[in-house]
Write a structure and sequence with these properties.
2 domains, Gyrase A, domain 2, 187 residues, Topoisomerase I, Chain A, domain 4, two-stranded antiparallel sheet, four-stranded antiparallel sheet, alpha+beta
Length: 187
């Protein structure tokens, strides 16, 4: 039999996953500052195999607004450049034969506002995901109460713990969103 504690652990794990997914999504949002996480989602067609860029090259922040990508295999330079051009970054790479440099342009005010709107939607989607997990686990706990596996007091206590976990993860998601918003609006 699955216990309410198992349900709470499952909820914690799923809510944590929702926060982690949001964190990864927001890390890929381009700000005026270079970050290696900008290119983590890019896959390169390397000898017929889709390979993540960080498995083919060292990715470093050369300057505040410049990423340097140095493939370990010189033959992969053009494939990496092509993958960056096909990606949704919207940045044209500069290739000197061995190192690819990505210079991040300054963001316009309109583009910043557009990115903030998009980021707020992602934060809200993460909140909804956490609430959906809560609802799912609440239903499971209430079903156990209905089947006389739990008393009303136990059900109430487990639901309070679930609500506390939900509140904590929503606060964490809000904090992550606020930090990214501040980073986006920073000039």
């Amino acid at each position: 039999m699955v216990t309410p504690n198992d349900h709470l652990k499952d909820a914690d794990h799923r809510m944590s996953g929702a926060h982690e997914a949001l964190r990864r999504e927001l890390a890929a949002v381009r700000t005026g500052r270079a970050s290696t996480e900008l290119v983590e989602h890019i896959s390169v067609d390397y000898y017929g195999t889709e390979t993540p860029i960080h498995q083919l090259a060292s990715v470093t922040v050369a300057e505040a607004r410049v990423l340097a990508i140095q493939p370990w295999d010189k033959g992969a330079v053009l494939a990496v450049e092509k993958a960056i051009l096909k990606s949704d970054l919207g940045i044209t790479p500069n290739n000197d034969g061995s190192v690819i440099r990505l210079t991040l342009p300054l963001l316009t005010e309109d583009r910043r506002k557009e990115l903030v709107r998009s980021m707020r939607k992602r934060v809200e989607d993460a909140r909804v995901a956490v609430r959906n997990v809560r609802r799912d686990v609440q239903d499971k706990i209430r079903a156990q109460e209905k089947a006389k596996e739990l008393s009303q007091d136990e059900t109430h206590r487990f639901l309070e713990q679930l609500q506390k976990a939900t509140d904590n993860f929503i606060a964490l998601i809000d904090k992550t969103g606020e930090a990214k918003e501040a980073e986006l609006l920073e000039v």
